[in-house]
Write a structure and sequence with these properties.
The protein has 310 residues and is an alpha/beta fold. It has 2 domains: 211 residues, Alpha-Beta Complex (Spore Coat Polysaccharide Biosynthesis Protein SpsA, Chain A), CATH 3.90.550; 91 residues, no CATH class. The protein contains 12 helices and 8 strands. Helix 1 links the parallel strand 1 and strand 2. The radius of gyration is 20 Å and the shape is globular.
């Protein structure tokens, strides 16, 4: 029996995947105990050829091509194909530490021995801007600064980020996997975490399970991502009919008012946008502006659909 299935969604990410797969194959865990499932949304950058070459030397690497409509669909294909008891989610631009897989399994096994089987494990994901920074943090543990303190035991669904998270396959199947209505950027992982928690599954933090997210996003691209994330926030809150979800995700009266003020001050908005590349304060305001733009547009479209049904 395979202990662990690593699921990686990808689309035209060969430039980083060529580093990610070797980092997983260098795992301290024996090869026969895990498999790597690459759910590929029909990439056109020679991903298929690369994976075919790797699979000849390492049969535990499998290519799962398909017309997936987003990361949710790709990850669900990985869950469906998984032979492992535990499914670990990561991404095509995230480099694994040597003991990443072992640490996830160790935490699951330790909890099972205590009769705590209904758990999910979230590891420490570090952001890096280059291979050089990755190598520095890999070799200098004292320089690592994660999102959570190492003393944290549990995390909220708000931090269930599937760049470094593992769940028993049977529990993923039980709750229906990822919601494939989340086809744009953002929140399909948080929404899964929300349902896991509602199903009584504890979300545990494991700071020893470390990986490195190597994907510096250009300023303009991140603005577009933030708008898509805003749309996903509305979809998430609407699905569960919860204003509390919306508030936790930043859809607050204050954020909506600030957005309206900036819309009425185009000169200030332009100034902040121009300085956002170099100034963190301005950048955060611009990102929040685009996030709320996505929220407002999604809400407006919802109202139009509702009117159309009357």
């Amino acid at each position: 029996m395979t202990d662990l299935s690593v699921v990686i969604p990808t689309f035209n990410r060969l430039a980083t995947l060529e580093y990610v797969i070797p980092s997983l194959l260098a795992s301290a865990l024996e090869l026969h105990r895990y498999e790597i499932l690459v759910a590929d949304s029909l990439s056109t950058d020679a991903t298929a050829e690369y994976l075919a070459d790797i699979s000849r030397a390492f049969p535990n690497v499998q290519h799962l091509p398909g017309p997936y409509t987003g990361r949710a669909g790709a990850r669900n294909a990985g869950i469906a194909a998984a032979k492992g008891v535990i499914v670990l989610f990561t991404d095509a631009d995230i480099l694994a530490s040597e003991d990443l897989l072992y640490r996830h399994l160790e935490r699951h096994h330790a909890c099972a021995e205590k009769g705590e089987r209904r758990i999910a494990v979230v590891g420490k994901e570090l952001q890096v801007s280059s291979l050089a920074e990755y190598e520095y943090l890999r070799d200098t543990p004292q320089a690592r600064r994660g999102l959570h303190p190492d003393s944290r035991k549990n995390v909220d669904w708000l931090y269930f980020l599937t760049g470094n998270a593992s769940v028993r396959r049977e529990e993923l199947v039980e709750i229906g996997g990822f919601d494939e209505n989340f086809t744009g950027y953002g929140h399909e992982d948080l929404e899964l975490g929300y349902r896991l928690k509602k199903a009584g599954i504890s979300l545990l933090y494991e700071p020893k399970a470390v990986n490195y997210h190597w994907h510096p996003v250009p300023y303009e691209e991140q603005q577009g991502r933030m708008e898509l994330a805003g749309r996903s926030t509305v979809r998430f809150a609407r699905k569960h009919r919860s204003k509390w979800i919306a508030l936790k995700l930043g859809m607050t009266p204050v954020s909506l008012i600030v957005h309206s003020i900036l819309q009425r001050l185009p000169g200030l908005l332009k100034y902040l946008s121009q300085h956002g590349k170099k100034n963190a304060f301005a950048r955060n305001i611009i990102y929040q502006f685009h996030y709320v733009t996505g929220i407002k547009r999604a809400r407006s479209e919802d109202k139009q659909r509702t009117k159309g049904k009357k």
